[in-house]
């Protein structure tokens, strides 16, 4: 079997260090032009295919950035990953993707963290919506490992930088919009109460009602599951009531649940928006194309991904700078969590057809505010 050419072979033939070879392979500018040309000529002559792992380790750094995501079928994940990948592409790092199954969330997250610690090839971790599994990430961060969190499901662990959307403000604006259209019996379909985001969006709903002098009617608030089936179940319960008790508008805490509301209204022979105004939350790609097109709160998904990965890259550089100081610490010493930034990005209300506000019950109206 022919010998596989390595970065060490290229360095030996070119009479340079492996670090210089790595810098040429990554197109770094601070290499003598004649040396660069000699290395590239040898690479071509030897048919060398660089290994990102070997090249990174030869350069004295870990070559990979890990991204931990839930199921890839989640509607916001593709856009978020595109924004992350566009930033990583401009660096010398490569991105490795880990997906956590919903059925074995805790076990999968623990295995991934063990793998990261064992291989030592990953420079940092971006964890997207890890939920309650985020507690496992504290172990990584306490060892000085760069971790950034994008989450809305559970309180951020101490010492880990966190980026999220302003769920409360977004829900407030969605509800206020319905109030300004004249609605006063506004129902809210919550997400699962085990998630922080569900409480934040409920609080925004309450904020808008209270600001308008409206009492929060507990009978108009039902717990869903963020999925169409849960939205449909809750909507059927709300819309099957006598006309005087039925809401004239529904704010659903996710677009998926809003799709379920549309299905329930169709089942009951109700028209959206003529008989029922509807607002969702997320602005999934499909929301502009359902009929009627869904009014919703847009999460800043692209900005969340972009800012998170840039923050992670900054942390990686900061962690690499004080290596000499850390090497003087006892082998058993662990760094205490540093004060970590909490970045909350604004949402925006996207007005489409589903909140048209042709009310069926004049007694349910308020003057515009």
UniProtKB/TrEMBL annotation:
Residues 5-59 form the HTH lacI-type domain. InterPro entries: HTH_LacI (IPR000843), LacI/GalR-like_sensor (IPR046335), Lambda_DNA-bd_dom_sf (IPR010982), Peripla_BP_I (IPR028082). It holds the Pfam family Peripla_BP_3. It comes from the Bacteria. GO terms for molecular function: DNA-binding transcription factor activity; transcription cis-regulatory region binding. SMART domains: HTH_LACI. Keywords: DNA-binding, Transcription, Transcription regulation. SUPFAM superfamilies: lambda repressor-like DNA-binding domains, Periplasmic binding protein-like I. Coiled coil: none annotated. Gene3D superfamilies: 3.40.50.2300, lambda repressor-like DNA-binding domains. PANTHER family: HTH-TYPE TRANSCRIPTIONAL REGULATOR GALS, LACI-RELATED TRANSCRIPTIONAL REPRESSOR. This is HTH lacI-type domain-containing protein. It comes from Thermogemmatispora tikiterensis.
């Amino acid at each position: 079997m022919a010998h596989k050419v390595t970065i060490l072979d290229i360095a030996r033939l070119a009479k340079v260090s492996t670090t210089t070879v790595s810098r040429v392979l990554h197109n770094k500018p601070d290499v003598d032009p004649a040396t660069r040309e000699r290395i590239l000529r040898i690479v071509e002559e030897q048919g060398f295919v660089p290994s990102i792992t070997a090249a990174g380790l030869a350069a004295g750094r870990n070559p990979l950035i890990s991204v931990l995501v839930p199921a890839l079928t989640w509607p916001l994940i593709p856009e978020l990953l595109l924004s992350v990948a566009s930033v990583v592409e401009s660096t010398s790092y490569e991105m490795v993707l880990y997906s956590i199954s919903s059925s074995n969330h805790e076990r999968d997250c623990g295995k991934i963290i063990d793998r990261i610690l064992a291989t030592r090839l990953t420079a940092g971790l971006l964890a997207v919506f890890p939920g309650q599994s985020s507690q496992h990430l504290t172990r990584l961060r306490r060892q000085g490992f760069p971790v950034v969190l994008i989450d809305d499901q559970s309180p951020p662990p101490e010492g880990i930088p966190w980026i999220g959307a302003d769920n409360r403000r977004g829900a407030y604006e969605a509800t206020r919009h319905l109030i300004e259209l004249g609605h006063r019996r506004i129902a809210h379909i919550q997400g699962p109460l085990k998630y922080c985001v569900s409480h934040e969006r409920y609080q925004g709903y309450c904020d808008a009602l209270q600001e308008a002098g409206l009492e929060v009617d507990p009978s108009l608030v039902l717990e869903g599951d963020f999925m169409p089936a849960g939205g449909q179940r809750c909507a059927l319960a709300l819309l099957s009531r006598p006309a005087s008790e039925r809401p004239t508008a529904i704010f659903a805490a996710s677009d998926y649940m809003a799709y379920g509301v549309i299905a329930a209204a169709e089942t009951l022979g109700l028209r959206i928006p003529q008989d029922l105004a509807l607002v969702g939350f997320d602005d999934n790609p499909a929301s502009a194309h359902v009929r009627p097109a869904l009014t919703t709160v847009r999460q800043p998904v692209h900005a969340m991904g972009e800012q998170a990965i840039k923050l992670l890259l900054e942390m990686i550089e900061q962690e690499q700078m004080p290596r000499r100081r850390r090497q003087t610490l006892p082998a058993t010493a662990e760094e205490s969590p540093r004060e970590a930034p909490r970045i909350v990005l604004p949402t925006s209300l996207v007005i489409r057809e589903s909140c048209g506000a042709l009310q069926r019950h004049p007694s349910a109206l308020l003057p515009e505010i």
